[in-house]
Each structure stands twice: as C-alpha cells, then as structure tokens.
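Renewal narrative, Specific Aim 1. Our central claim is that a sequence can be written position by position from structural information alone. The example that follows is taken directly from our test logs and has not been curated for this report. It begins with the structure tokens describing the chain, in the order in which they were read.
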C-alpha cells in the first residue's frame, strides 16, 4: 500500500512536467504551400484607393468575429474575397465550405501609435488552391502604401496607447510561415481558424442598421441562402452580461483551442479547449495550475506560444477567476 501511495504522489508531481515538455515540442513537419505568392500585397486587389485607408475593394467583404484572438492589443481587419460567381456554403456551425480561389485576409494594425497615428504592421493571407489552403504574411512598409512578402518573420518596434490610456512599448513579432502553419494546422491540413459559422453568427451594423452577419452575407451573395434558425454562436468573452464560464471558455476556444484540440498542434496533450467540449473532457480541472502559470508569465513555455510578446492581463484575470470557481 505504501508503494502505491508513493507512486501516486510521484505521478501527481511528474504529470505537469510531462505536460509542459509535450506542449513545447512540435514533432511535426511544416506543411508546404502549393502556390507561389506574389511579392506585393497590392497584387491581390483587396483595397481600393490608397491602401493605407484599408477600404475593401469591390467584391471584397469585411468579416467580424464574436470572439477574437489576442495579439498584443493589435486591432484587426478581416476580409474575404471570392472568385466571381462563387459562394460559400454553410456546413453546420464549424468552418463553411469555401469555393476554390477564396482569399481570406487579416490585417494587423494599431490606431494610436506615437507620432504616427494608425500604423499597419502585417497582413496575413490564406488562399484556397486545389482544395488546399496556402498561407503567407506581408509586412507593411514605412510609407504605408504597400506590404511585401516575408517568409522568415520580422520584429517591429511599436509604441502605442491602448483605448484605456495605457502606454506600451513592444517588439511586435511577425510570424514565419512555419509559425502560421503550426496554429492553422489540423492533422496534416492547413485550415482557417476564425471564420467558423458559430463565430460569424452575430449581429453587425451595416448601412446604419443592425443585421445578422450571416443573413447580410447571404444578401450580398457571398454565402449561399440557407436557414440559420438552428445555429448557435460562440459567445463574446468581452460581454460582461454573460456567465463567467461562457466567457472564459470562449476566450480559451479562440486563443488556445486551435492547437489544443484533437488533431491540433498540441492535440497530443491532455487539453481539449474547444468551446463545445464538455468540461469533464477538456482537461481543465487536471491542468489548473499549468494553465494559470503558462498564461500569466512570459518565457519559453508561455501560452499562447505564437502571436504574443506581452501578457493579456484581462484575459489572464478572466481565466484565473473562472478556474478558481471550478469545483
């Protein structure tokens, strides 16, 4: 009996250690693109007029998400461009079926940069070709009139003021193509993360009116007309009127679930952080201390591993409060 007791104690102490190292190791190869990207972002005609205005071109639509990924407080513009005459088809509440040639773009920028005002940092593209998603990142130049293809990543010093009035100085990290692929991979396939139907099923304002985004996209001919009555949505973790559990789980879904799910980059760990996963099967209870430590401290084992160089204080506080109340 004493031996059994000691083995249990050892397991309790060693499991978190094994978990940390398993998260840190990739163990998978990069997924290659099947197309060559142009060196200039302007080639894809996403914007009209001055590129610095970020005004979507004709045939390019803006997408909004209910909950968004934290990236060092950067603001983001999400766009979708389809080949003429093509439509997106709803397929449950996950990713819809995108037509061949779809372009999904996400531009990262800061509105209140010291001595500059708004400054675009990078634009990431996903292009569907031969049923495979291809990924590339473009870094905006100093003149803010063009962005150029980068494959090895880059570091951009930024001094900006948050909406709260807090002044920050960071070294923004533009990811390498391989880093983009690590988050966007499911099994051995590259996939979009944000534009799932449950994340698009929200009310937005267009032309001064509130309208469901899915209905709006159907009216614009981007999405094929279909019923949305039975669809649910991913809650907004910013919505303070929602229950704590919903907000915290939504935060972990969009910030962590793309890796921590079966087939994801960290699918071999004991965490499954997809919102729809029942709490008893998420592994959150077992990994309480690991989650708190790895999200609240920067360093080699910080989570999320990519896209952050500073701590999301609000997000950490949300997770901490939620975990403290789990029985």
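The sequence written for that structure reads:
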């Amino acid at each position: 009996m004493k031996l059994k007791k000691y083995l249990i104690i050892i397991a309790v102490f060693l499991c978190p250690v094994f978990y940390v190292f398993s998260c840190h190791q990739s163990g998978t190869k990069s997924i290659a693109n099947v197309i060559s990207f142009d060196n200039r972002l302007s080639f894809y005609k996403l914007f009209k007029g001055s590129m610095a205005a970020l005004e979507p071109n004709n045939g390019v639509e803006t997408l909004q998400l209910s909950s968004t990924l934290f990236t060092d407080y950067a603001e983001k513009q999400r766009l979708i461009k389809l080949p003429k005459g093509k439509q997106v088809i709803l397929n449950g509440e996950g990713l819809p079926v995108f037509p061949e040639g779809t372009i999904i773009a996400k531009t990262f920028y800061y509105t209140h940069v010291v001595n500059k005002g708004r400054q675009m940092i990078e634009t990431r593209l996903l292009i569907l070709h031969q049923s495979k998603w291809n990924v590339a990142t473009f870094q905006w130049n100093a003149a803010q009139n063009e962005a150029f293809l980068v494959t090895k990543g880059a570091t951009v010093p930024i001094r900006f003021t948050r909406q709260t009035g807090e002044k920050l100085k960071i070294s923004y990290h533009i990811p390498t193509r391989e880093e983009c692929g690590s988050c966007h991979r499911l099994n051995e396939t590259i996939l979009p993360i944000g534009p799932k139907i449950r994340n698009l099923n929200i009310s937005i304002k267009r032309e001064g009116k509130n309208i469901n985004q899915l209905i709006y996209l159907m009216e614009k001919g981007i999405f094929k007309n279909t019923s949305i009555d039975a669809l649910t949505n991913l809650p907004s973790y910013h919505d303070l009127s929602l229950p704590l559990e919903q907000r915290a789980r939504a935060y972990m879904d969009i910030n962590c679930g793309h890796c921590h799910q079966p087939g994801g980059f960290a699918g071999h760990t004991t965490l499954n952080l997809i919102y729809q996963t029942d709490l008893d099967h998420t592994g959150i209870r077992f990994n309480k201390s690991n989650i708190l430590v790895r999200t609240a401290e920067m360093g080699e084992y910080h989570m999320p591993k990519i896209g952050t160089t500073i701590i999301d204080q609000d997000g950490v506080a949300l997770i901490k409060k939620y975990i403290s109340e789990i029985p």
